[in-house]
Write a structure and sequence with these properties.
Two copies of one chain form a homodimer. Chain A is of the alpha+beta class and about 350 residues long. The first copy, chain A, has twelve helices and ten strands. Chain A folds into three domains: about 80 residues, Winged helix-like DNA-binding domain superfamily/Winged helix DNA-binding domain (Arc Repressor Mutant, subunit A, Orthogonal Bundle); about 150 residues, Beta-Lactamase; about 90 residues, Heat-inducible transcription repressor hrca homolog, domain 3 (Enolase-like, domain 1, 2-Layer Sandwich), CATH 3.30.390.60. Chain A has a five-stranded antiparallel beta sheet, with helices on both faces. Chain A has a three-stranded antiparallel beta sheet with strand order 4-5-6, with helices on one face. The longest helix of chain A is centred in the C-terminal third of the chain and has 19 residues. Chains A and B meet through strand 4, strand 5, strand 6 and helix 10 of A and strand 4, strand 5, strand 6 and helix 10 of B. Chain B binds a DNA duplex (30 and 30 nucleotides) through helix 3.
Chain lengths: ~350, ~350
DNA sequence: CGTTAGCACTCTATTCAAATGAGTGCTAAA
DNA sequence: TTTAGCACTCATTTGAATAGAGTGCTAACG
């Protein structure tokens, strides 16, 4: 699609622009050394590249900046896969080695590393609990009216929920219920719990206990899915140092959106495994028009999957970020593996 | 300490400055109507107030702005306690009425309300678990090497922790241990748990079981205090709209500090109950020199206490914020009461 | 024919002096 | 004691001139 020379020039422009955040002119490219042509020649090529839609010109007498299409070409064909620095690799190893007790801590920690290494904002999605199963259920009365329902999943995560005790249900009723659930539903995938509750436990309760309605309501409440998977943000303030966000208004719009979990979920949502790059307007939300989001997925014992992502300006160090995410997602899978599971 | 007229003028200046964020001059005060003197007279008083340290002048030909001492006087003597708007009160009632299942949700929600009502940043500290006691303990093996320890407190909070199982400890050992702890330590205050573990349970284990060392280590790990109380932030982006933070550098320093839980803890830390106002340099951290922090405490069944706070520029709507915090802290205490507890 | 030097042109950013205007302090009069 | 008047200060705004970076085009060059 592009000639050798055009590719080289596009590459040079994107590189330069990523580094300096300023329109790059023909002269400065010529001087870089890796494109050994005169400014005039480069100018001609640049005019062509602009016509093809890979470059843009803020105004007549400025240099060129890459368009979204330009970035896309850069990412797909040009971005050199930089090897990570040794010190960064060390951080990853530490992550895997560290004695982090909970999945959430591993994720949180990974997010912090990611943000500090890249100087962008990291967004991590906890594992979908879709593929985990029930390990243990408990129903613990606190007083006459409220109880705590505790669910432990096969991956060792603990969810808890305060539920109110229906009239006429006794502590021993609840204990029986919990025992019944553990006996019958242990090992059942989380997303099938409710269905199985009605199909299997329902009859049993109806046979042995009064208060059928009340007990079912209680159990139904208790098993209510522990809301959406958690989102972990880190390095949001790195947005502040990006020159593209010197406009506080736009900055606030973006930061505000980052506080909304549903927006983030929608942003990260994808069926695809592996690494994905969404440049500028490829993102769902209009406010992220000059942002790029790069995501990778990690797995937890091959059962559950989560997403880690980096949000930054479209003028992002793609090569570095992609490499980092790739390695870190593997490191996370490794750190989470073996620690739990059947 | 200040004459009637001086008070009035100081009041007018602080009021105006809080509204407009710009140095206020003698003329504009004279025109306000509530201080019926000529600009010249007011100028004289202003000169006096400056000499006394209540006002400052950015430069010779600008109006005056309040000093920290000025704000302090305003807060202590002048700030009129504004009644809240009806719609705001309604929000509070909703908070109390809502069926929020977990303490943390109540707190989180209160923080959101607080931030959106005041347009400042809210910082809420979860209840100190200091005064809560053990309700239930459980130790649940996940596989050969790891187990989940679950602690339920008297206020219905659930803490969980993944611990590794020492060599030679069996599932039935762990079950016994858990039963023992429940039998002996239920009702014991959280902060005394470890001490009691050694003084009471220790002997028992030594008598009945092998692996004394290992079991004690396991239990000790399991009871490790669930880190610091959680901190909930809301409305951090409200900082962006404050003109005092148009300097992105300072803004970043502050926002970065807000991400550090220990800093926040130190910032909020106080033995005092009730409402506290810390103006500018009265705050621990240098970076908060032009911020004010107003805090109030709430209680959970009279047992545990937490803190809610508002962080904003020193030029803060003290009257409104103090009123809001006062009411909200009560509303929270109410919302949390009755829901749990013995 | 592809490449490059040269040059006129465009447009932004910088600089600097002058004008503006908000606000003060002081003095003298009411 | 209060206030009108006035000279003075100083940040901000304004506008014009200038500098500078970069382009597009044309003509020359190998």
């Amino acid at each position: 699609m592009l000639s050798e020379r055009q590719s080289m020039i596009l590459n040079a422009i994107v590189d330069d622009y990523i580094r300096c955040a300023e329109p790059v002119g023909s002269r400065s490219i010529s001087k870089r050394g890796d494109v050994a042509f005169s400014p005039a020649t480069i100018r001609n090529e640049m005019a062509d590249l602009e016509e093809l839609g890979f470059l843009e010109q803020p105004h007549t007498s400025a240099g060129r900046i890459p368009s979204n299409k330009g970035y896309r070409y850069y990412v797909d064909h040009l971005a050199p896969l930089k090897p990570l620095k040794a010190e960064d690799l060390k951080l990853f190893k530490q992550l895997a080695a560290e004695k982090l007790s909970a999945v959430e801590e591993v994720i949180q920690h990974a997010g912090t590393i990611l943000a500090s290494m890249t100087n962008y904002t990291s967004i991590l999605l906890g594992p979908e609990k879709f593929n985990t199963s029930l390990r243990h259920f408990q129903l613990l009365p606190l007083n006459e009216t409220t109880a705590v329902a505790i669910i432990v999943t096969s991956t060792g995560e603990v969810e808890n929920k305060t539920v109110s005790i229906p009239q006429g249900v006794s502590a021993s009723d609840m204990e029986q219920m919990a025992n019944l659930l553990n006996a019958r539903l242990a090992g059942v995938p989380m997303h099938r719990l409710k269905a199985r509750l009605y199909s299997e436990i329902g009859q049993e309760i109806q046979r042995h206990a009064e208060h059928y309605e009340e007990l079912m309501k209680l159990l139904d409440d208790s098993l209510a899915r522990g809301k959406d998977p958690k989102v972990f943000l880190s390095g949001t303030t790195n947005m502040l140092i990006q020159p593209e966000f010197k406009d506080i208004g736009k900055l606030k719009t973006v930061l505000d959106l980052l506080e909304e979990t549903p927006t983030l979920m929608r942003l990260l949502n994808s069926e695809q495994r592996g690494i994905q790059v969404r440049i500028g307007s490829e993102n769902v939300h209009q406010a992220f028009a000059n942002c790029s989001l790069i995501t990778a997925t990690y797995s937890l014992e091959g059962e559950a999957f989560g997403t880690i992502g980096i949000l930054g300006p479209t003028r992002m160090e793609y090569a570095k970020v992609i490499g980092t995410l790739d390695l870190l997602s593997r490191a996370m899978s490794r750190a989470l593996a073996g620690r739990y599971g059947a």
